Amino acid sequence: MASVMLSGTEKLALRTLTGNGLGFTASDLQGKAFPRVSFVATRSARIPNSRTMVVPKCSVSASRPTSQPRFIQHKKEAFWFYRFLSIVYDHVINPGHWTEDMRDDALEPADLSSRKMVVVDVGGGTGFTTLGIVKHVDAKNVTILDQSPHQLAKAKQKEPLKECKIIEGDAEDLPFQTDYADRYVSAGSIEYWPDPQRGIKEAYRVLKLGGKACLIGPVYPTFWLSRFFADVWMLFPKEEEYIEWFQKAGFEDVQLKRIGPKWYRGVRRHGLIMGCSVTGVKPASGDSPLQLGPKEEDVEKPVNPFVFLMRFALGALAATWFVLVPIYMWLKDQIVPKGQPI
């Protein structure tokens, strides 16, 4: 497997522009600056309460539909996936993909500037991201929502989160009133949403006027084998898709900040389970101007147990690849001279 990972390198081609294009700057966890990336308008259609639709000029991935079915993307599969993963999540998954340094870096654009802010952490799981939120906001003002009772049970055991509200719920149908929260945070959840646009539309709805959404999620690989495993496992959006979903929902001042673990040196060949932090500001009270049809997934619909188990097993097998990637990359980080991309 390691020999396969060593072959092939794909570069991120970006066009830097001046003017009013969207952009972002960031740095890795070793203090090296990422390049500023500008996003350029590609069509003239406008969205209510938003700027011109923009996408980045870059070759980050092969073309594939966002709606393509993946084995652990739907809610029932994700529920059972986390039934087992919750046992080792904080100790096995986070050290390779979602560290405290990454969490704090990703939350910085959320502007958690007051202890009195009302914050919802959607897909909060074991509360790892919430621990970063309560550094800045009183725990009694924070709500953790997740569909997995097994993950939430872990969150309830953490002393700093004892005063948080902890509820089971659906990211695509949030149990909060419109104009409820000052901040919406979601980390490592979008990859399991059957309809990411609907989830981001809900983020817009529950925020107050001027509130900010901060969505932290994976980025699509450029290396062919990692692309294959990403596509059969769960949703790995492209950077331009995040921008488009936010703008369609009605957000303004949409920005994307790249994040990465310490073994990451600027080449996204294998993708990242936590690769970017996307923020947007709600410009008007009320619901999102975007109109959507019925939900894509009916969680009450009966499933064939054999098909479900087969999909679950294949999805878990694909997930194993992304458990091995950080181990392999950590070894390369120890061997390859500093300053060279890996």
TrEMBL record:
PROSITE patterns hit by this protein: SAM_MPBQ_MSBQ_MT (PS51734)
GO molecular function terms listed in the Swiss-Prot or TrEMBL record: 2-methyl-6-phytyl-1,4-benzoquinone methyltransferase activity
Kinase in keyword set: no
Domain of life: Eukaryota
Keyword Cell membrane: no
The entry's keywords: Membrane, Methyltransferase, S-adenosyl-L-methionine, Transferase, Transmembrane, Transmembrane helix
Pfam families linked: Methyltransf_11 (PF08241)
TM stretches of this protein: 308-331
Biological processes per GO annotation: methylation
Protein name (database record): MPBQ/MBSQ family SAM-binding methyltransferase profile domain-containing protein
Natural source organism: Phaseolus vulgaris (Kidney bean)
Taxonomic placement: Eukaryota, Viridiplantae, Streptophyta, Embryophyta, Tracheophyta
